[in-house]
Amino acid sequence: MIQDIAPYRYHNEYIPTPPDENSIALYYQKKSCLLTYTESGIRFPRFKELDKENPSIYDNATYLFTIDHEKFYLVSAVEIEEHPEFLMESIWAFREVDPQYLAFAGITGYQLYNWYHTHQFCGKCGNLLKQDANERMLYCENCHQMEYPKISPAVIIAVTHNDRILLSKYAKGVYKNYALIAGYTEIGESLEETVQREVMEETGLKVKNIQYYKSQPWSFSETVLMGFFCELDGDNQIRLDKEELAVATWFSREEIPVESKRDSLTNEMIMQFKRGKR
């Protein structure tokens, strides 16, 4: 999966040391990131490549994380027209580009960028929020409200029936290939209850024997995904929620129209079933 970057190691401890000229700069605009393509894959700019046209870049940088000994920082107000060797690339490219550790860095940085960008003001009193010096937290000096990064729990659900698995396609969004049933956990709800509710809401099916499989951080949607396998309980007739799904179909192991990819928990779970491991 996209976070499996060994032998590189991701360090998310909040250690806000100042950047140097060799630190890596992550710059985002909406859902795109500044990078360049090389023979070995993508590359992000280093501070020394941007500081001539952006002299305040060191003062306004926000520490994000470290991979091995490379420190990554969020930067703003980059004069990108002065750097034609770089381009603004869609964050969705991080699902496929190499090297994988930089793809992971790019999408993880995007989740933090989006949190900082959407939490500039206090939601309680409207004052400007400030960054804490000791932990990744924003606080309000006026009313003392504290804000931490948003992570939404969600489930990925592989519904099986004998040698068949239920695959679906979303009715909305950019991803149009076959996937598994998925949904966010609501307040006051257990993960197992989320599994039952989402399957029922989207397909009209009941499930049983719910078993946890594995989890994955998924920064594309600011979620932590938790995968579950479960079995059909009773009638297999699908009653589709067309607001959520374009299609939902049962496939035998031999018929599954999905090939192995590196990025997602969804794909790994489908491959587990396709290869007879579940």
Please tell me how large the radius of gyration is.
Answer: 21 Å
Largest sheet: 6 strands, mixed
User: Percentage of helical residues?
Assistant: 10-25%
Rough shape? Answer: globular
Q: Number of helical runs?
A: 4
Beta strand % = 25-35%
Average pLDDT: 95
Number of strands: 17
- The arrangement of helices and strands along the chain is EEEEEHEEEHEEEEEEHEEEH
Distance between the termini: 18 Å
Quaternary? single chain
Contiguous runs where pLDDT drops below 50 for at least 5 residues:
none
Structural class: alpha+beta
Description of the structure:
This protein is α+β, with helices and mostly antiparallel strands and about 280 residues long. Helices cover about 15% and strands about 30% of the residues. It contains four helices and 17 strands. Strands 12, 13, 14, 15, 16 and 17 form a six-stranded mixed beta sheet that branches. Strand 15 and strand 16 (about 225-230) form a beta hairpin. The radius of gyration is 21 Å and the shape is globular. The mean pLDDT is about 95.
Summarize the structure in short.
With 278 residues, the protein is an alpha+beta fold. The chain has four helices and 17 strands. A hairpin with a 6-residue loop joins strand 10 (138-139) and strand 11 (146-147).
